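Input chain follows. Return structure tokens only.
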Amino acid sequence: MAKKKESTAEQKLRALYNLQIIDSRIDKIRQVHGELPLEVQDLEDELEGMNLRLSKVEEEISDLNLQINEKKNVIEESKAGVAKYVEQQKKVRNNREYDSLTKEIEYQGLEVELAEKRINEYKARIASKQELLETSVSELEDKKGALDAKKNDLAEIEAETAKEESLLREKSKEASAGVEERLLKAYTRIRNAAKNGLAVVPVERGASGGSYIKIPPQRQLDIAARKKIIIDEHSGRILVDLELAQEETDKMEKMLAKLLK
């Protein structure tokens, strides 16, 4: 069985830069989406928090209503007690019994006054919470409207770029398969560490792409010779010559333009 021919350094560089072009196109699409995905997520989280707070306020109002009903029962029981003791007073045989019943009537009266006071306090708290609830519901509706608007904006942008992004992701997988594992791991590591996602850059005006640090002339000649993989000692990126970069860019643009028709 014939041994598989190993790729040349130039072929490896072209495969790497080809992958970089595709991934950079995907990055640009994500940039078009801008902050919208994060804004949508933030609004969804905020709405979830608001709903939890509203539920808590509703539970507190419900608890206060229960306490009002309990105090109303206390009032009814106390009034019934007063009526009973008044009737008993009519049948007492001495002042001691009469005074004892009078104290019970006074006590039940105080119970009624205290219960009525608590009811008024609970009603005031309910009114305050109802006001808070109404304000919160209004804010919630505003947030829902803002969320719907953001989602619509995001959906429109995603619809416009969905075809291209799907195609590019498929092409990125294909291009990744064409890069040997060792280089792919290096590419992924460099790309993840770079803020702009650039792992493979061309030499422009004597410096690596996006850098102002000049590359020595002999080093530039080595890069242009395409005989080995060369890493920029300052940025850590893989370097290719500008001619190779332009060739691969032109080929990729033609291919994508044809596929996206």
